[in-house]
Amino acid sequence: MMSYKTILFYIVFFTTCLVSAQNSIDIKLLNDTTTYVVGDSIVLKFKTTNTKSLQLYCANSYGNTLVQSTINNDVHSFAIPRFLAIKKGVLNWSAFTNKQRITGNISILPKENPVMMETYLGPPSIEAGGTDYTMLVVIPTDDLDNPLVDGTEIDINKQFLTSQEKIDIKSNNLIGYRRIFSPIKSGRVILSSKAKQLDSKEFDVNIMPAIAENFQIFYDRIHEYADGNQITTFYTSIIKDKNENVVSDGTFVDFFVKNLAGNVLKTSGTTIKGIAYAKMLHPDAQETWNVKAIITGISESDTISLSYKRAITDYSVTFSEGNRKIKIGPIKSFMNQMIPDGLTITLKVFYKGKEIEEMIKPSRDGYAFFELDKAIYKDDVYTFKINTAGIEKNYESKKIW
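Structure (tokenized):
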């Protein structure tokens, strides 16, 4: 019969042997390669001893999963799922049992030849002059939508006016890109790209003129008389930027007209082929205008001055029927012709030095007629002031009945 000490010895001995046996279990990767191409069938094989509990954990930037194995003669084969095998990058793995774990990674490369070119360009319009730029971004990808490896050569073709240029770049961090600076002249730049015999579609960039420089203005009119009927046309010189590019069609130009009374009138126009036109009706009285054009916040013209001669030198005023009917006219213009319809005629009525009414009528066939209502104007003495074409006539203490 064994003693207590003998039994304790055997228990410790067998326990130590068991632990040693468990700790001696090895997990060994059998694959010789750590680099694959997307779409390959990837099977990681591990050799173990005395265990069936080996599992494989895989993870990359697209996801992670546990993979079950097939076992043949202590060799565990793990087939990497397709959703991980079709994406380029680094795939990290961890093979483990309850007692041991080993880790590693494999590299999955994209296919060599692209089947699609993702190309982006923006902004689509830039300013001429060489300081503004657009950016062309090119991403050649394989049939599984993986960008090609860094260092892939990409050719950029650039055409502007009569010149053509080829620019060589290489992809880096999944993309190839190039800043395309604007030329001095305005126009349109055409761009395309090519990677390993695969061509992109055509892209274009509008090269817009820079901001306008100061300019000159001019005027054109049929005659110089203030008839309130004809039109004066104001127009600019060809408006250009600092690089002699004609500004874009539709550039808005304001013309400000200051008269002798200090009042400011405004008319506007938009450019066509660099020239803006605006029109304004002639004044109806002798006048001098100072005109200046402005492209708001950008540029301005010089100031020009133009004068209008008096078209009407005099007119007749006739009182009748108790001085209650007032006929003004005939009003004749500079060639002794009747003034065009629409000339403004003003009649002011004063009673005991106080203005009691102002009446305004347009001329018609060279005349204007006013009538004083008996219900409003009692029989008494009134003062009348008549004004048209800058000519004022006063009739003091006029009795009506």
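The radius of gyration is 47 Å. The chain has four domains: 21-109, 116-208, 217-310, 315-400.
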